[in-house]
Specification:
about 50% helix; eight-stranded parallel beta sheet; Non-ribosomal Peptide Synthetase Peptidyl Carrier Protein, Chain A; TIM Barrel; about 15% strand; alpha/beta; binds flavin mononucleotide; two-stranded antiparallel ribbon
Length: about 325
């Protein structure tokens, strides 16, 4: 599929996630095969106000390309000014958030509130498209609630307003992140517009992604929560799509991935902030491993990187040792 001049065959994208998809997480996902990455959503008003905290969210590294800066806001004029400033930062495309369900975003008329006001959604998209030389994409949901699904109207508006692609989180605003996504809408949207469609929502296994691609003919998929603590889902999915098989990461690979991610976090944020903000990733990376809650509690006490590295080495070496004993026993039993 194409986003402007960017061509990617069936992209497996990393979803924008507030406080998660910072430079270090995006890089670790890129290194595991993510084709497209986005910043977390960034408040257009904060960009205009020149807020340092907001502006810092637009930072990215060249290895992340192609990357989109995602903007949100309720006011077409503010979105236009923010789009102008975001374009100067030099991303590959801009994405407009029309799906965030969080109350304070919606109450301010942004994110999913636009699902209830399609003329304003259209004005916002047009104002961004008219001000930037970059391709503009849109990310949205099926509709406000199950009684008011309007994704077919939205898709037409998005296309006519000049957007280059549309990502659909196949839930409504009222579902939040709960309930089963309804992917059947993807096929209907595909039949009604010609811009590329990226499907999103609970895509947590290569098998599920393959089935979705085959049944809906969507142009790409976007993975969010399933990549937290498991960035290898991108390479697993690619392997499964190409060869029909994939493997689980070895203990060694798990360890090297956590260490690499942690090192990137420290590199981009400094040691103290990098270590503190990395704490939210321990649960995901250690999920399903023996005594993981105990080791997580220990890791949470550190504010420097050195003891974390040491603790992780000792922990993963002990798991590897147990695994090799179990394997040896297994081999003996088999003989
Ligand atoms: C912690 C968190 C933060 C999120 N922040 C954003 C965001 O900044 N912009 C956005 O478009 N969607 C955001 N989302 C929604 C995701 O991009 C995605 O649409 C949603 O999680 C469904 O995909 P998944 O089931 O693969 O996680 C967020 C989701 C989570 C869990």
């Amino acid at each position: 599929m194409n986003i402007g001049k960017i061509h990617i065959d069936t992209p497996i994208a990393l979803a924008p996630m507030e406080s998660i998809t910072d430079v270090s997480f995006r890089l670790i996902c890129k290194e595991h095969g993510a084709d497209l990455v986005y910043t977390e959503f960034i408040n257009s008003e904060g960009i205009i106000r020149n807020s340092n905290k907001t502006l810092s969210k637009m930072t990215f590294s060249p290895q992340e390309r192609p990357i989109g800066i995602q903007l949100y806001g309720s006011n077409p004029e503010s979105m236009q000014r923010a789009a102008h400033l975001a374009t100067e930062v030099g991303p590959d495309f801009l994405d407009i958030n029309c799906g965030c369900w969080v109350r304070n975003v919606v109450n301010n008329g942004a994110g999913a509130d636009l699902l209830r006001d399609l003329p304003r959604m259209e004005r916002i998209i047009k104002s961004v498209v008219s001000t930037t030389s970059l391709p503009v994409t849109v990310k949205t949901r099926l509709g406000w609630d199950l009684q008011s699904i309007n994704i077919l109207d939205i898709a037409k508006i998005v296309e006519q307003a000049g957007a280059a692609a549309l990502t659909i989180h196949c839930r409504t605003r009222s579902q939040g992140h709960k309930g089963d996504p309804d992917y059947s809408w993807i096929k209907l949207v595909k039949n009604s517009v010609s811009i590329p469609i990226i499907a999103n929502g609970s895509l947590h296994s290569p098998q599920k992604i393959k089935l979705l691609l085959e049944t809906t003919h969507c142009d790409g998929v976007m993975i969010g929560r399933a990549a937290i603590g498991a960035p290898w889902i991108f390479s697993q999915t690619k392997n499964f799509l190409s060869y029909g098989t994939f493997s689980e990461p070895s203990i060694k690979h798990r360890l090297s991935t956590i260490l690499r991610h942690l090192q990137l976090a420290v590199e981009y944020k400094g040691e103290y902030r990098g270590v503190i903000e990395f704490r939210k990733f321990y649960a995901g990376y250690l999920k399903g491993l023996p005594n993981s809650s105990k080791i997580r509690q220990v890791l949470m006490t550190f504010v420097e990187i050195a003891p974390i590295i040491e603790t992780l080495h000792i922990y993963f070496e002990s798991i590897a040792a147990v695994e090799s004993i179990e394997n040896a026993h297994g081999q003996v039993r088999c003989r």
